[in-house]
Amino acid sequence: MINDASAYDKMPGIGPHPKGIHYWWARLPLPTARAILFASVVDDPSAHPERFPTDADQERERERLFDIIRRMMQKKLHEHPEAYAEAHEEMLKHCDGKLPPVLDPFAGGGSIPLEASRLGFEAHACDLNPVAVLLNKCNLEIAPRWANHPPVNPEDRGKIGGGQNWTGTKGLAADLRYYAGKIREEAQKKIGHLYPKVAAVQEKDGSYRHATPAEIKNQKSKVQNLNVIAWIWARTVASDNAAARNAHVPLVSTYWLSSAKGKLSWLEPVVDKPNRTYRFEVRIGEPADRNAIRAGTKLGRGGFKCLLNDTPIPFEHIRREGIAGRLGMRLLALVAEIKRGRIYLPATTEQEEAAAVIAPDGELDTDLPSSALGFRVQNYGIHKHRQMFAPRQLMTLLTLSDLVKATHSPTMADTREAGLSHKDATAYADTVTTFLALMVDRCADFNNALCGWSSANQKVMHLFGRGAVPMIWDFSEANTLGESVGAWKTCSDYTAECIEVVGAGNIPSGHAAQTDAADDTTGSLDLMVSTDPPYYDNIGYAALSDFFYVWLRRTIGQLYPDLFKTVLTPKIPELTASPERFDGDLGKAKEHFESGFRTTFTALRDRLDPRFPLTVYYAFKQEDELGNAGVPPAEEDDETPAIQNAGGTPALPGVDLTTGWETLLEALVSSGFQITGTWPVRASQAWRMRAMGANALASYIVLACRPRPESAAAVGRREFLAELKRELTVALRLLQQGNVAPVDFAQAAIGSGMAVYSRYSRVIESNGQPMSVRTALGLINQIKEDVLGESVEEFDADTRWAVAWFDQNGFAEADYGDAELLAKAQAVSVSGLQDAGILRAKAGKVHILRPDELPKNWDPSSDARLTVWEMTHHLLRVYYHEKVGDATTAELLRKLGSKGQVARDLAYRLFSLCERRKRSKEAQEYNALVLGWPELDRLAQREIEPAAPEQSQLL
Description:
This protein is an alpha+beta fold. Among the domains are: 575-623 and 657-787, no CATH class; 794-849; 853-955, no CATH class. The model is unreliable at 621-658, 685-698 and 943-955 (pLDDT under 50).
């Protein structure tokens, strides 16, 4: 339930959402934050036997609380303020009528403080990053101040009392739309000539071409003046071949313009080799060679090919030319708007010249870091923030920034006319200007020379599809004064819609401060702390946020002098394990990260309200919205994306014993905390969590911690290991019974294991030294493997052979002799295994049958040699490969009867083997089967006639 709501919350295209006010990386899903805050306050009924003496009493009360959580997990909860109110009232019952203040010391994008505020807590957000602090101020201080306030602009003022509802932040949003519209009008006057329309003619076959000068002059009716949605550009470089020396050739990663079904459009190069010139024509329909269209001029990871003579252009040459400032850009095509969609036209000299403006010197002349997490563009000569923008983009964004600043005075005048005092009018004008500045940031995210064009979605994609700034070779430039994706109107309208929904729930006044996480900013004790800290070396927030900081500082720096007093965001104090800040020293980077956490948690320990746990989130493999799915891949000869584009297969998360997990746990334990539990939360990009592939991977692990008693004893390794085996074995069995997904199993096991380790002041090794967290994690992982391995020993001999063979070979072929040798050890034979339908032997080779190779007409009732292996993989065949639906798979499970239940145990074990062997595709299949098991089992157990009463699924 929480997983589904969190997955939905992370999806793009779900309508207005607070995350749309401003981009932030790896933003925590709001349903997860509100569920953890609620659970941190509300006790399980078993904690109050005096009120709920029997199991039945406790279960009834538990179900009532679950119903509250269910209502909190509704889609678009801003439309259901009663859910927040109900949760608030319930929490008050568990807090003697007064909720504790909530502190997030690493607030980032502000999901936890926002949900704390909506639930009625006094929320405090701390962060060193000024962009993050400003975003939290907007959520906690600025927007709530103007809740239920009517708009002040002259158009909407007259609607007051006419039935218009200005509840929440709707009045503020109305003002933002009005003043953003005025900015667009002024921008059109100043720079509208930079965005010319295109004259086109539709042919009889439905295709379009540029109108000729004669047709335009004669103003024939068939000439259509169309708005341009976007311009598609390619970077160019001097050819590395002597025959074409000094001729600039395009670096095109794909020729696709539209790969959408039924709307295929692509570029075809027309090359004049003797004159060393080229141009591109637009073609529609099915190309003769899709692979050639997909590849463009790219040669895999090795570089590009010269369009003039097909010789390779290695990345080394491109880097040299880039660093020397000799990369160019060439217009490839235009995207124009028609009534029924969009069309593509080849570039023209006039359109290319319209973009050739000269932006003012000295603007955004700030430096990119020489090296930073996720940055590659410096290798190609992009060293300044201004160089991240094409000339027309930079000129336009500077104009918008200036117009936002100039809006402060007329806004204040309108506010005074609406009857506000001078002080309040100033504050409201500051508010409007601030949110307009955030709109400039959103516009900048979609209007820079590192934005790809999605041929699948036919739209401009924003820069930050993930926490990185890769090099993009063919980029798209939106029509900023138009009405499509990336335009000022689109960006400002969407931001205003998102501001409308931020004001859900109780919204008491909160506080955001730019301060170190260890400092006391609340001035009070008895805090409840919940935080989503930086993830070791996953994302370099400070360097990335400079992209937004430079625009905010230019636009509203004068309104927040304390936040924008430095040229760029603070870098050194940021808690990320970035070795480039320590001359490449990984050890120093790790120590910086760990000591920072240790200092923070130690400072927080004595300020906590003992009634409530400290909750800490950790993201194992966290990538924020895959907004650039379908975009041609960026450069990278030397960078593998953490999560590939649609259709790619990501690496699976595993228990990393050397970096993030170890460091975070070490900091918590050494600062006097014990971990009492961990919960995995899946928050992928798919709405239904049975979604296949990468969408089933875990995103977050939540650690619940409490201060370790000062009287905690020390224990020896032998006693610790005996206790760990006893408690962890039981806990792991319960996790399996609770259907924890295999992808989350290892991480969930850490909570139970670390609960044993961290309850002692220290665990003493045989040499007298304290046991490290790394060693403890290794022991926990080993016991997990032993428990999963023990279940295999209970299976039939054929299945035991198959598991051992699969561990070594997967579904690949291997020698018959090896198979026979292993078979003898299991007291089976290869021929018998073949008769059992597990493998195929041919020409001295053996391979286990893949699920899609299994017979579709298989009937377990007539199988004389039924094995757990067969049952599991036939279920997988029907459920995952044939995708015929839950009901059909459940019918097969029903036929298997009680024997079928062990298939889930095998799926757990096989996932673990695949994870260890890095077989991500197969691992995702086993994970999907376990995820879907509760529904399959429910359907399999249900009687057809008559329908038996069912107990609803809780989570």
